[in-house]
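Notes to self after the Tuesday call (sharing in case useful).
The group wants a holo model before anyone commits to mutagenesis around the pocket. I volunteered. Ligand is heme C. Logging inputs and output together so the record is complete.
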Amino acid sequence: MRWIYLLFAIALFFCTAMRPQGPSKKAKAVFHNQLTELIETLGTLEQSLTTEASKEVIQKQYAQSRIAFKSIEFLIASLDPLLYEKTLNESPLPKVEPNVANKEKHEPKGWQVLDESLYTENLDRAACMQLLEQLIDNLKEFQAFSQQAYLHDAFMIDAIKAQLMRNFTLGITGFDTPGSGLALADLKASHQGILKFLELYQDVFPKEALNKLKTVLSIHLKTDFDGFDRYAYLVEHMIPALEELENIRTSLALETIEESSPQPLAFKSTFENPFQPDFLNASYFSEVPKKEYNQARSALGKKLFNDPYLSKNLKTSCQSCHAKEFAFSDAKAKSLANDGRSHLSRNAPSLNYSIFSSEYFHDLRAANLHMQFEHVVRNEQEFDSDYMELVDKIKADANYKKEFEICYEEYPAAVSKTTIHHALSCYLMSLPTFDSEFDQYVQQKKKAIPEEIRLGFNLFMGKAQCGTCHFPPTFAGLVPPHFEESESEVLGVLVNEDFKHPQLDQDEGRQASGVVKYDFDFYKYAFKTPSIRNVELTTPYMHNGSLSTLEKVVEFYDLGGGLGMGVDLPHQTLPADALNLSEEEKQALIAFMKSLTDQAYLVKH
Ligand code: HEC
Ligand code: HEC
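Result:
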């Protein structure tokens, strides 16, 4: 019988040896060559800086090197996300080191900083050369490392998807090119780069899907930055491309990121539309695993949320300051405290989409929802209570006790700080619906988008620069394409609406949040970028409620924020230049923001 085994072994050997390798090897070789080319273009640029070449020559060479960069950005960024985000392409603002407890300032480096530096009035050649040297060194190191990489089919799908998100949110908004404004050239190069690699997958990816994908990825740019139709790009190119990429994944039964990695993701990797209701993963943010979320727990959370019984004076509930009819805010500049007379120091934010945040409160002082809830329970102006008192109260109420026992049967203690927080978290997880009028256009549930809303969206994501801070799909500071970090910004918010005599609000925001690692000057007056979903219902605006209408908000931005109005605020992160929006454009921006009101409210009002 031995010969049978031998035959079997030989057959197995041939099968394995002859099994097609897939295009991975070839793709890697192409990638390697393009990376070499990219490093060379950067070398040429460095040379020109050394030899005092003219600004025009330098900028032309820079544009060339950006094309080389953008054509393979999708591979670099996905092969080494940390290197890409922390060294190669950081936003040009100082930050604190994430994920460290102590105070550590991090100076940004990479392309975005270079982009800004090369296009300033007085070109600092030495500084640019240093940035270039860093870039070249990092890329060379990366090139050596990437020899080990395996560009398998599922990886390519996910890398292209991430790049489409990057292009849509950070590319065509101008976020990525703060100096050069080369956003559209970048977009073209990125698509062409992807198309080039797709050629290698001709025999692997199903023909029909691949052809469709190639068609929607072929874009012809006929306009300039301001005129580019971002809405058309989203619905006619990006979403169809995402759909075909998922078709390919399904037909080849390729694994998903969730299947191949134990790390939870902030978004669903198999998304076909960034506006689909389950795109963001609420579990990731609330730290309540999917299997622990259910309707009964969320209903219990809702009951707690609305119940003044939890507060010491039996008068204050979460909904006192977060009322549903105002999209879970309170229509006051600053919330009323539990004494019914004094005010809290800030404006109550809307909660519909607040769960999608890495940190909570206007100054980002709460690292998670537990800290947020605890603050309400203990704060003298809010519940003015503690957990012993709260647990005793709930246990003393037969209905509550029973409900907790049913909902949290398997927990060591059915009524506890943990379960109270759990139920409240489940309730907050149930609030986002992504069913506003705008969502319905993008989800293609409703036909043609009205021209004014389309213009408003295009301005928001383009000329008016709103989308460089309020990122889709939440239109908050939750940074794509990973959606793991909430940003704060310095706008120079004033004490009131008197833009002629601007007086800076003295709330120091993130710097004074009590979080030691945020105690830096660049966080002085910095506030979390909130979602503008349902903003039609959450007047007045900003952390201090200083702006009474959306008209005033748009005017504030049109004037370039506090700095633009003449306030002395050198580290304002909002560009101080006037936006020069026409009256029609201002109205369109407002119409777009109003199209983000959730259906639940439209039915009633
Ligand atoms: C007395 C008014 C008041 C009460 C009561 C209250 N809040 Fe708030 N809430 C606020 C204000 C004001 C802020 C912003 C405070 C800040 O940033 O310093 C806030 C912030 C929040 C945030 C942060 C949102 C974000 O986007 O970062 C959440 C979540 C929240 N509240 C949930 C709750 C819950 C749940 C309860 C009940 C347990 C509650 N609040 C009770 C006024 C209130
Ligand atoms: C530099 C980043 C940045 C840019 C650009 C930006 N925003 Fe904001 N936006 C913020 C931050 C941060 C806040 C919160 C400020 C505060 O609370 O004091 C905010 C607040 C708002 C609010 C109030 C939300 C609320 O509930 O109070 C609206 C509305 C808004 N922005 C719309 C826009 C529009 C429209 C544009 C473009 C014209 C824009 N933003 C551009 C960062 C930005």
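Two things stood out.
Confidence is low (pLDDT under 50) at residues 12-20.
The pocket of heme C (ligand 2) is lined by residues 362, 464-466, 468-470, 489, 491, 493, 527, 529-530, 532, 535, 538, 541-543, 553-554, 557, 573-574, 589 (CB under 6 Å).
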